[in-house]
Specification:
single chain; about 290 residues; alpha+beta; Cyclophilin; ten-stranded antiparallel β-sheet; two-stranded antiparallel ribbon; 3 helices; elongated
Length: about 290
């Protein structure tokens, strides 16, 4: 006869009630382990380290450390705003809810391999992201991150980014807006991946990505695709995410987006922006 929970293994107590409780406990543990494994598999997606789980910045012995909130500084002109600006922290969005659903981009293109190198690595390249809230200007680093910039320019020229929602905003410990996933789930991309670059950049000092940095999100070493993040305030992060650009205008736009908050869907200070943030158009070219 096949064994079942009514048959007592040698390590179970003899008392019927104690045995029943022990069997129930073991059953619940098995179920919990199965659920945890499924959650872990489902969450394997492209991302920077979550604000609620950064050991160096947001977690102290399992307790999330909350940063003080303050109102943003008055918005500056996007044409004169520079990466040296220091926007204030966005307020916590506790109990806030997004009133929209992210819609995946229809007919998003996909490629099997990284695009061939076509950029001039000694040239000056810039990009502009036009959000509904305003524009962000970026100086791209073709010299130190050639594959990354080549891919970004390629995708921009293919209009891959146009109409994509920015699906993630962090406002505690980590201060970034993450964009570039056509599915809006955090697991989408262009169909190809490419290697990390520029991780020894002198701009990444002391485990810190300074305000104005534009860098790639990933799901592990050398898994870059189309997802990237815009740093609107100095953020403590290990040098695992390719920096490939610097914001030269529009930090006020990002600060205003952050001030609206997010819905804590991924944990305190980490979730979907309360108000939709969509890249209407993204352009990139050599100057």
């Amino acid at each position: 006869m096949a064994p079942n929970d009514t048959q007592r293994p040698r390590d179970l107590p003899k008392d019927p009630e104690k045995r029943r409780r022990e069997l129930q406990r073991r059953k619940l543990e098995r179920q919990a382990a199965i659920r945890a494994q499924k959650v872990a598999e489902n969450r394997k997606r492209t991302a920077i380290i979550g604000a609620s789980v950064i050991a160096v910045a947001a977690v102290v012995i399992g307790t999330v450390a909350f940063w003080p909130s303050s109102k943003p500084k008055p918005a500056a002109s996007a044409s004169t705003d520079t990466a040296s600006s220091t926007p204030s922290a966005a307020p916590s969005s506790t109990a806030a809810k997004a009133t929209y659903t992210i819609t995946p981009k229809k007919n998003a293109a996909s490629w099997k391999t990284e695009p061939a190198m076509t950029i001039d690595t000694s040239g000056n390249y810039t990009a502009k992201i036009n959000f509904g809230q305003g524009a962000v200007d970026i100086k791209l680093d073709a010299k130190d991150a050639p594959h990354t910039v080549n891919s970004f320019v390629f995708l921009a020229n293919q209009h891959f980014f146009d109409g994509i929602y920015c699906h993630r905003l962090t406002t505690q410990g980590l201060y970034v807006l993450q964009c570039g996933d056509p599915t809006g789930t955090g697991s989408g991309g262009p169909g190809y991946q490419f290697k990390d670059e520029n991780l020894s950049s002198p701009t990444l000092k002391g485990g810190n990505y300074p305000a104005g940095t534009v860098a790639m999100a990933n799901s592990g070493a050398n898994t870059n695709g189309s997802q990237f993040f815009l740093v609107y305030k100095d953020s403590p992060l290990p040098a695992n995410y390719t920096p490939f650009g610097t914001i030269t205008g529009g930090l006020d736009v990002l600060n205003a987006i952050a001030a609206k908050g997010e819905n804590d869907a991924n944990g305190p200070g980490d979730g979907m922006p309360i108000n939709p943030v969509i890249m209407n158009t993204v352009t990139a070219a050599k100057n």
